[in-house]
């Protein structure tokens, strides 16, 4: 990195830290994640001269290491008795399939019928997550990318900013705890340090392995499931001290803010109302599904809602640990949604929209409007 990049990195992290501090002072949930994201998006959208390079991105080594630490921190919250409710997971998985289908269908009908978008734009705008695959398929079919990406990115931003507030206000105030705000006593004994370093090394090995195997968000999920296995079996129980975990949360929130902040404001403004409606539709379907499954299967609503959230897998996993909401349940369902989209999206796309060449012709015949 050049000297300019290092200064930009320090400034960006300072801005993210300030955003986290403000959210924590206001006692907003998941403040260490949402605060930095909101701060970065706000600064970039207002074109304030606080970030010299508007195209700046975090170094790969920093983000990769951070994902491993976050995965390890999330897995450390798994208790040995978490399998007690696992017998109900197949039923909630089936409900998740219905929720994903419902979100995609509802958004598609709104965008295609009401907004007069092309069929390809409407379909890809409705897919809840797997942004990389969505973009690749849309480009392959020659679909206009600007509106699809704006709708998807606005949904991700609002999920991270709004979902913690919804969850904490719809459940027992004493039922969820902001883990990041807990006063965790740091143990500085040599044995504890060796144990923590050993656990992190194991998590790092499995994270790299998961990435090599092309697992979704491999560094994070690999470290998470390794940490969860160590803690749930009692082989090696550990927890990241608060002074180590908190900067990791801030870095992730800041990185998400940098990514979302790249949206072109001139393109965003006329699309904002449509994006908000799409978000409300997506969240309403997820909320309805979560309420029904919570009632039918007698599962806590907060964890079902996070598990059914339409997108932002890494963020939903982090929110589950920050609010102490069954991270294994949330991770398993979010990962299943993500992998299911990756596996079946190309097949469903061809079935719903037809061959790419035919769809390009159809798109030219259907006028579009924001």
UniProtKB/TrEMBL annotation:
**Which residue spans traverse the membrane?**
30-52, 64-83, 89-111, 148-167, 187-210, 242-260, 272-297, 303-323, 335-353
InterPro entries for the chain: AbrB_dup (IPR017516), AbrB_fam (IPR007820)
Q: Which UniProt keywords apply?
A: Membrane, Transmembrane, Transmembrane helix
Which is an annotated Pfam family here?
Answer: AbrB
PANTHER family recorded: REGULATOR ABRB-RELATED
Full protein name: Ammonia monooxygenase
Q: Which organism is it from?
A: Pseudovibrio ascidiaceicola
